[in-house]
Amino acid sequence: MEFLWALIIGGIIGWLAGLIVGKDIPGGVIGNIIAGFIGAWLGSLIFGHWGPEVGGFYIIPALIGAIILVFIVSFIMKSMRKHAS
Questions:
Q1: Which tens digits make up the pLDDT trace of 3-59?
Q2: Inter-residue contact 45 to 28 (CB < 8 Å)
Q3: Helix, strand, or coil here: 14?
Q4: Is the pLDDT of residue 1 over 80?
């Protein structure tokens, strides 16, 4: 049950990061979950463990990390589309 809760929270974090940046994550729901997990890892490395914890994620660092990740992925995808054209 704890793993399912982590998947849900990770998906929500990835989805919120996409909304804040204004870009969609490739892969839909699975992409949002992956962005949430990687963003939580990245945010914890950069900002540490602080703020409220839900489902094993410290929400504030996870959201900031996911926003950074979404921004980087959207920048890379945009540059790849320019080179493909």
A1: 898 899 999 999 999 999 998 888 888 989 999 999 999 999 999 998 899 888 899
A2: no
A3: helix
A4: no
Amino acid of residue 85: S
33, 60 in Cβ contact below 8 A? no
In this prediction the pTM is: 0.88
CA–CA distance, 70 with 14 (Å, rounded to integer): 8
Give the residues across from 18 on adjacent strands: none
Residue 76 token pair: 């890379």
Render 20-66 in DSSP notation, one character per residue: HHT-PPTTHHHHHHHHHHHHHHHHHHHH-S-S-EETTEEHHHHHHHH
Q: How many CA atoms lie within 13 A of 50 on its CB side?
A: 5
Which token pair is 3?
A: 């793993």
CB atoms within 10 A of CB 14: 29
DSSP 85: -
